[in-house]
Amino acid sequence: MNIHKKFFSKMGFNYLIYAILTIIIQIIIIIIIGALNSNIIDNFNSFTILSAICNYILPFPIFIYLMRKIDSQKLEKQSLSIKKFITYIAITITLMWIGNILGLAITAIISFFTPFEVINPVQTLINSTDIWLNLFLISIIGPIFEEILFRKLLIDRSIKYGAKVSILLSALIFGLIHGNLNQFFYAFLLGGFFAYVYIKTGEIKYTITLHIIVNMMGSVVSLFVGKSAQNLISGAIQPLDLATIIIYVLVILISFLIALIKLCQYKKIKLEDIPGKITLSQPFKTVIVNPGMLLFIGFCILMMIRQILS
């Protein structure tokens, strides 16, 4: 392997180690806690807290140690105007919906043509967990850790190969690491867009905020809207329910309109304007076709298949 393939192979191995670590740590913690008090494991809220600790907090120092062995560079910082940030919020919400629709369509096709009913693990988590846990873990803690893991640490090291490589790599790894088809598509789209925002601004705070907003829309706001929709169907709707539904629909429609206009304009953007020190003659073979990345991709695909079969 040449030096560039070795770089991306190392990145792939690091994320593979992270993915495996989260599983191993969770198994160990569940065994220990289960032996001490099985009621904690049986309680969905407690189990969700343990999962968050195992997925983010405990493996985080190890991953930081691994990534610090790879040279990084600081991005040039640039502030966003309020108008620009609102535009980014609209695009984020739109990409979330597009990705969700794609994920639901693909899993519906699989469920229709196979004996397997593909469930959405995220929706199960949201519906089964206390709303305050949804707010704290899914809407705040998750985005902070994920933006550091899959944007800052990744892009600071891969940006030397240019914006296109960094954006696609961040999108692919972020989509695959979720380990299920329901989340892959919107995670891929959002991961790519968040990578673009981070590269353009050099500020992780913007992508963390966008991530918090989109997760809050999906894990907290959706619960209130869903409840209002159920009341509407049952004929027991109240003025507050109607207002909730109308406001939600208006936010989505306005976001779609803004995003459609802006995304059409983004066709004119040349990512080559965001400099990379190294130009790859065979980007796909260099970035993807190497031991680390292939093993990472294979592992994540196996996790997706396992989720479908289960």
Question: Could you characterize what this model shows?
Answer:
The chain is mostly helical. It is 80% helix and 0% strand. It has 13 helices and no strands. It starts with a helix and ends with a helix. The relative contact order is 0.15.
Task: Estimate what percentage of residues fall within beta strands.
Answer: under 5%
* Radius of gyration, in angstroms, nearest whole number: 20 Å
Q: Tell me the major beta sheet.
A: none
The overall pLDDT, averaged over residues, is 90
Order of helices and strands: HHHHHHHHHHHHH
Helix/strand structural class: mainly alpha
How many helices? The count is 13
Task: Give a short summary of the structure.
The protein is mostly helical.
Write the layout of secondary structure elements.
Elements: H1 3-36, H2 38-42, H3 44-57, H4 60-67, H5 82-113, H6 121-128, H7 131-158, H8 163-177, H9 181-201, H10 204-234, H11 239-265, H12 283-287, H13 291-309
Give keywords.
13 helices; 0% strand; globular; 310 residues; single chain; mainly alpha
